[in-house]
UniProtKB/TrEMBL annotation, chain A:
<dbReference type="GO" id="GO:0046872">
    <property type="term" value="F:metal ion binding"/>
</dbReference>
<dbReference type="InterPro" id="IPR001041">
    <property type="entry name" value="2Fe-2S_ferredoxin-type"/>
</dbReference>
<dbReference type="InterPro" id="IPR051452">
    <property type="entry name" value="Diverse_Oxidoreductases"/>
</dbReference>
<dbReference type="InterPro" id="IPR012675">
    <property type="entry name" value="Beta-grasp_dom_sf"/>
</dbReference>
<feature type="domain" description="2Fe-2S ferredoxin-type">
    <location>
        <begin position="1"/>
        <end position="78"/>
    </location>
</feature>
<keyword id="KW-0560">Oxidoreductase</keyword>
<keyword id="KW-0001">2Fe-2S</keyword>
<dbReference type="Pfam" id="PF01799">
    <property type="entry name" value="Fer2_2"/>
</dbReference>
<dbReference type="InterPro" id="IPR002888">
    <property type="entry name" value="2Fe-2S-bd"/>
</dbReference>
From TrEMBL, chain B:
<feature type="region of interest" description="Disordered">
    <location>
        <begin position="1"/>
        <end position="29"/>
    </location>
</feature>
<dbReference type="GO" id="GO:0016491">
    <property type="term" value="F:oxidoreductase activity"/>
</dbReference>
<dbReference type="Pfam" id="PF20256">
    <property type="entry name" value="MoCoBD_2"/>
</dbReference>
<dbReference type="Pfam" id="PF02738">
    <property type="entry name" value="MoCoBD_1"/>
</dbReference>
<dbReference type="InterPro" id="IPR046867">
    <property type="entry name" value="AldOxase/xan_DH_MoCoBD2"/>
</dbReference>
<dbReference type="InterPro" id="IPR036856">
    <property type="entry name" value="Ald_Oxase/Xan_DH_a/b_sf"/>
</dbReference>
<dbReference type="InterPro" id="IPR008274">
    <property type="entry name" value="AldOxase/xan_DH_MoCoBD1"/>
</dbReference>
<protein>
    <submittedName>
        <fullName>Xanthine dehydrogenase, molybdenum binding subunit apoprotein</fullName>
    </submittedName>
</protein>
<feature type="domain" description="Aldehyde oxidase/xanthine dehydrogenase a/b hammerhead">
    <location>
        <begin position="36"/>
        <end position="142"/>
    </location>
</feature>
């Protein structure tokens, strides 16, 4: 089948998609966007978290056909278009500085989940509390860090994004 | 030669980074790529016209193969090749220490999930559907599923009961390998063989089978070369040991089998053994096309070795005053169907199986056995993780028997510098066991169990399931301390190779570090840069892609790479520096005694010289390649276990605070605290990251992680049913790092990664025990162990 959707703001069209393929497979293997990860492919680890029409979903649980005509946002779209080389989204920068990246396989999904959490909280005029961060990221497994530095990174990102309200969600 | 790309326009990137010397919180050179989603992991590789390979695996833990019919699979449109063991041109068995594992099943399969056949097709689902059409006729045999039964040893099930009868294996298939079911038996004999003591405690302990559960699946891309060889891009822990085994299976020399490290999504020991390596090469060579293989999560559970389950019986004798008189231990590691790292696991379990304590009389028998359970091999802290649960439980039991404080008892018997280990080795560098424990004791405790109307359910065991508001919840605090050998032991020729180049690029002196040491997430690439910056006084350091065009770096395991490859990089930098300083002396034109490299300059404080390094180098490229070894160790005596077995020890201690809902058997770990001596923190932020991550894996084994195996069959091969800690399971952590230099090691450093994985779980177990008053002799602890239901 033919699949048409918008990915990171760019219209995409791919042909010969087999009906059994997931959105994750199409992103990774047909669109050249392997940033979203394939750690479990069963909706348990969150490493493939992407925005679908602005809501975070596990791309491995979305049939490719379900993305027809919709807006998809991936880790590759977090850095705003036209950003200077080396410029990073505040969530990306915070993960780097806090030491929240080791093997990095969970990182793309966590970045999208964190971006979503921080924007939801800031929209309500506050920064996320630790208990909220833990709840929001409970669907994202990390095997390297023990999560402490991920929590540091989310707090750091929330502080910076609260101070700079012009930062846009990558939805 | 064509190289794989993730996308037709991409290319594998070298990693350059600026800033950060030894002792700094330097940022990872691969960090920006990783947060942008642009880092090329092994499962991301992509090439025009590539095929997908899949593996057909045995559904039976023990069976003879009568016949295999690949015809129906070959008939599926889109299929390019179907291969069996007949298509393996070279050695048909491989292994890390013993070559006993078939590349593809020969006549007998010995575990559920053993690879039987391979398919290459133009779409992964086509390959999977074709593999399902291969007809394998099995004669199904009864599996051997207990290490003691496999060895014909008595089983003990109940404390203090007489040993049960030996279970006879009567069938012809009872011997799983031609050389029998014993992989290794290590004996440690020290002091009086029949000691007596005032107080004796006996305990029997069990540790379940843990999985590494790295997130990046086993994967890679094999590309047939124009010279008839093959290039393999793969996620692994030791490129050269892979290369050796692949060459044997393919019957090719090393120059025809070239490996490059692809991005590795975690390892933790699970990538020491081959997985898809030979399979992808076979398919690529057979079809003449690039072949990608990438396991899904279920296959990953069958595609790598696990942590050995252990059954252990310990007897501790002490004086009334609490001095340890003797320890006797019998330890069984279930190695599963193939040897993998079992000999080394037995070595660690046996030589370090009584913990960091001084004991005059020691009698240990440590066994590794073949069974028809999943193969077990390397996982972070191997051999020591299992025994630490037993020896630390015993220390708590002994303290209770003596009516003394568990920390006091540990401190009273603690190893220190100059102590002698059970293997007769004198500990010749700092061993601050007492200080580690005392510092933990001095840390403040978290607030008491929340009660009353203002309870936040998220602070309760059971969380928002609303199972309790504090009723039936009891607090417990537990301590544990552990030690672990760093690097390869028992006489292994443990070395690494580093190639360091210094040259002028764009007017600036730039260093390039080339090693084959696998970066698996731990941050070795950062350490390599920090060392080069420190030794050569430059900012720009490029880490060359890791491949087999440079000599072996040894394995990324045993907490050894910062020590051994770090040592090699330091030595190669020193050799480069010596040449550069010699060049500088000829520029200056007179002997200068205090020349050094700093800030991109050649500096002499005495003579007030500061020459730009770029001017000294000019067009010269200064390159040195060095092999570096730590001081040698020796094999232990086969009858007594005595010998200088280990080059270095790492020490860590944990305090765990838990709340237990005693009615439902739910555990919430409230806080973890860790103290560890790292000798020298080369990158403090990364060191803390290792401690936090290792703590999480130890906590996981204590309360949730187990591959459930019934009759040789895995019951839970998914992240739905095999649970690893989430951010809700991990509590806040306190970490204190001690830096007592080991005079034998580069910069005085100590390997970091494994120790915190060893002491964390036993501390959690001790805390649950204190909260509940239950003996708890098995991990992971499950709700039914706490409620008795």
């Amino acid at each position: 089948m033919r699949l048409s959707c918008t990915v990171n703001g760019t219209p995409q069209q791919v042909d010969d998609v087999w009906e059994g393929e997931s959105l994750l497979y199409v992103l990774r293997e047909r669109m050249g966007l392997p940033g979203s990860k394939n750690a479990c492919e069963q909706g348990e680890c969150g490493s493939c978290t992407v925005y679908l029409d602005g809501l975070p979903v596990c791309a491995c649980l979305v049939a490719a056909g379900q993305a027809q005509g919709r807006e998809v946002g991936t880790v590759e779209g977090l850095t705003p278009a036209g950003a200077a080389p080396g410029e990073l989204h505040p969530v990306q920068q915070a993960f780097l500085e806090a030491g929240a990246v080791q093997c990095g396989f969970c990182t793309p999904g966590l970045l999208v989940a964190t971006d979503d959490l921080v924007h939801r909280s800031l929209a309500e005029g506050r920064k996320p509390a630790d208990a909220e961060i833990r709840e929001a990221l409970a669907g994202n497994l990390c095997r390297c860090t023990g999560y402490e530095k991920i929590l540091d990174a989310v707090r750091l990102a929330a502080d910076r994004m609260a101070a700079d309200p012009t930062a846009e969600a990558a939805r | 030669m064509s190289t794989p790309t993730r996308t037709p326009s991409g290319a594998p990137a070298q990693m350059t980074g600026a800033g950060g010397r030894v002792g700094d919180d330097a940022q990872r050179p691969d960090g920006v790529l990783k947060v942008r989603g642009e880092f090329a992991y092994s499962s991301d590789l992509w090439m025009e016209d590539m095929l997908w390979g899949v593996t057909l695996r045995s559904p039976h833990p023990h069976a003879r193969i009568r016949s295999i019919d690949v015809g129906p699979a070959l008939a599926v449109p889109g299929v390019y090749a179907v291969l069996t063991s007949d298509d393996v041109p070279g050695e048909k068995v491989y292994g890390l220490e013993l070559a006993d594992q078939p590349v593809l099943a020969l006549d007998v399969v010995r575990y559920q999930g053993e690879p039987v056949a391979l398919v290459a097709a133009d779409h992964p689902d086509t390959a999977r559907r074709a593999a399902a059409r291969i007809v394998v006729d099995y004669d199904v045999w009864e599996p051997v599923t207990d290490a003691r039964v496999a060895l014909g040893h008595p089983t003990w099930n109940q404390l203090h009961d007489a040993p049960a009868e030996v279970t006879e294996l009567s069938r012809e298939s009872a011997n799983l390998h031609p050389h029998g079911n014993l992989v290794r038996h290590l004996k440690v004999r020290k002091g009086d063989p029949e000691p007596t003591a005032d107080v004796v405690v006996v305990g029997e302990y069990e540790v379940g089978m843990q999985d590494q559960a790295f997130l990046g699946p086993e994967s890679g891309l094999a590309v047939p070369g124009e010279d008839g060889g093959v290039d393999l891009y793969v996620a692994t822990q030791w490129l050269h040991v892979d290369q050796r085994q692949i060459c044997a299976a393919l019957a090719m020399p090393p120059d025809k089998v070239r490996l490059t490290l692809a991005g590795v999504g975690g390892a933790f020991g699970g990538r020491e053994d081959l997985s898809m390596h030979v399979h992808a090469c076979l398919l690529a060579l057979h079809t003449g096309k690039p072949v990608k293989m990438s396991y899904n999560r279920e296959e990953s559970f069958f595609g790598h070795v696990h942590r050995h389950p252990a059954t252990m019986r310990y007897e501790h004798g002490a004086t009334r005053d609490g001095d340890l008189v003797y320890v006797k231990a019998t330890i069984y590691f279930d190695g599963g169907a193939y040897a993998s790292s079992t000999p080394a696991v037995v070595g660690n379990g046996g030589t370090m199986g009584i913990g960091p304590y001084v004991v005059p009389n020691v009698h240990v028998d440590c066994y590794g056995a073949y069974t028809n359970n999943p193969p077990c091999g390397a996982m972070r802290g191997f051999g020591s993780v299992q025994t630490a649960f037993a020896y630390e439980s015993q220390m708590d039991a002994l303290a209770a028997e003596l009516g003394t404080d568990p920390v006091e008892l540990r401190c009273r018997n603690a190893m220190e510098q100059g102590s002698e280990t059970p293997t007769g080795q004198v500990v010749d560098s700092p061993a601050p066991v007492v200080e580690l424990l005392r510092r933990l004791e001095a840390m403040p405790l978290p607030p008491d169990v929340p009660t009353g109307d203002d309870v936040d359910l998220r602070d309760m065991p059971g969380g928002v399931s609303n199972t309790t508001h504090g009723e039936g919840v009891r607090r417990g605090v537990g301590y544990a301390v552990a030690y672990k050998n760093v690097a390869f032991s028992e006489g292994f020729d443990d070395h690494s190779t580093a190639r360091v180049r210094l040259e002028v690029v764009g007017g600036e002196a730039v260093a390039t570090v080339h090693t084959a040491a696998a970066e698996v997430g731990q941050g070795l690439v950062t350490v390599e840069q920090q060392i080069a910056r420190t030794e050569l006084g430059v900012d720009q350091v490029t880490v060359h892609p890791k491949d087999t065009s440079v000599g072996s770096a040894g394995s990324t395991s045993a907490s050894r790479q910062t020590y051994v490859t770090g040592g090699a990089v330091k030595a190669a930098c020193e050799a480069v520096r010596a040449r550069v300083l010699e060049m500088a002396r000829s520029v200056v034109g007179r002997p200068v005694v205090d020349l050094r490299l700093d800030g991109g300059k050649v500096v002499s404080d005495l003579e007030g010289v500061a020459l730009p390094l770029a001017d000294v180098l000019g067009d010269e490229v200064v390159e040195e390649t060095l092999e570096w070894r730590h001081r040698p160790t020796e094999a232990v005596d086969p009858e007594t276990g005595q010998g200088f077995a280990h080059v270095q020890y790492a020490f860590s201690a944990h305090r765990a605070v838990v709340d237990v809902d005693t009615e439902l058997g739910l555990v919430k770990v409230v806080e973890m605290a860790c103290t560890q001596d790292v000798g020298k923190a080369i990158n403090p932020q990364a060191v803390v990251g290792q401690i936090q991550g290792g703590t999480a894996q130890g906590l996981g084994l204590a309360v949730m992680e187990e591959i459930l195996v019934r009759d040789g069959r895995v019951q839970n091969p998914s992240f739905t049913d095999y649970l690893i800690p989430t951010v809700l399971d991990m509590p806040p952590m306190r970490v204190e790092i001690l830096e007592y230099a080991d005079p034998h090691a580069p910069y005085g450093l100590r390997g970091v990664g494994e120790a915190p994985n060893i002491s964390s779980g036993p501390a959690v177990l001790a805390a649950i025990r204190q909260a509940t008053g239950l003996p708890l002799t098995r991990v992971p602890v499950r709700p039914e162990h706490l409620t008795g239901t």
